[in-house]
Predict the 3D structure of the following.
Amino acid sequence: MDPATLIPLADPLPIHSAWFDVLLIVTFTAHILFMNAMLGSAAIGIVKTIRGNDQLNRDVGQKLPPLMALTINMGVAPLLFLQVNYGQFDYVSSVLMGGWWLGIIVALLISYYGFYAYKFRVDNMGKATRNLLFGVSIIGLLYVGFMLTNNTTLMLVPHEWKQYFDGAKGFLNLNDPAMPPRFLHFMVGSLAIGGLFIALLGQWRKHNEYITIGMRWFTHATLANLLVGVWFLISIPRDIMLKFMGDSTPATATFIASLFGVVMLLSAGFRRKPGAATIWSIITVFLMACNRHWLRTFYLSPWFRVEDTPVTNQFGSLFLFLGFLVVGLVAIGYMLNLYFKAYDRRA
Ligand code: HEM
């Protein structure tokens, strides 16, 4: 069977695909940064608890429900843009994953509920109960992340979709050697950004120990992630790997720029400068998201080029979207302002 026959036809786009690709990359960067801060700080908190000090976990636990809400909200945006440009791949991989994919909703509910209960009832629970609740919530997040890596990689390999016709009902992308390092790359990145989040918390509260703990996790996890990144790079098909090593100028330029970002964030990290480290982290995660975009383009190139999707040039929906975006950003700015004012009054 020719796998190309399994790919649904692309629907026409109202405006050029580049709009959706840019919005996809930008919103995905925000999604991943919030996800990293949430999962990473929760993981560091539980490690500290296991080592006998649960104060950090309690402090971080106060931040997890809002961080989770932001992660989920910032996940919806890239999901929509992904479906616009690559829906004929992403819908298929979601359906093929079946129950594994739907299980995300259950996992999200469990994790969300767990973090809420921890935040508001931490003092009413026994040590074992609260740590179990926290641990289960982290496992839920790991499940969600793992399923997303499976989906975003399964959508790239239509030749693997044939497993469905061999009787596989609901399967993951486990044949792909790039899937484990890709997932690990995101998880180790979470420890780094989670550490940075703790350091920022320390800076805000003038709590030196948190800056030390946070920056240590930030730098050490980033160094470890350099190794995971090399594993990831050599696990992707050779012709695609070579695109990042000179065969494609934009991909190579993005890759070099992102490595420069890593050097800068590490330098800020070792100098214990959470502010500078944050700026370089945002730049680097954005550039890594661009690398990831090139990767998707190269994987899909035998099957599909997004530039070939017909465009109808109907700008009405774009103007509506931009209008709501501006109003939405102003509303979010206003709400954040209220939040911080309320926080200052309590402090
Ligand atoms: C709260 C727990 C979540 C975690 C830990 C998480 C983690 C991740 C990770 C690790 C990836 C990267 C996968 C890869 O490229 O290998 C990812 C991508 C993505 N996530 Fe999330 N996510 C979470 C929630 C959500 C939710 C609730 C949504 C949607 C409503 C969402 C939407 C997306 C989308 C659309 C992508 C892929 C974007 C693209 O391919 O360009 N995520 N997420």
About this structure: The chain has a mean pLDDT of 96. The longest helix spans residues 55-97.
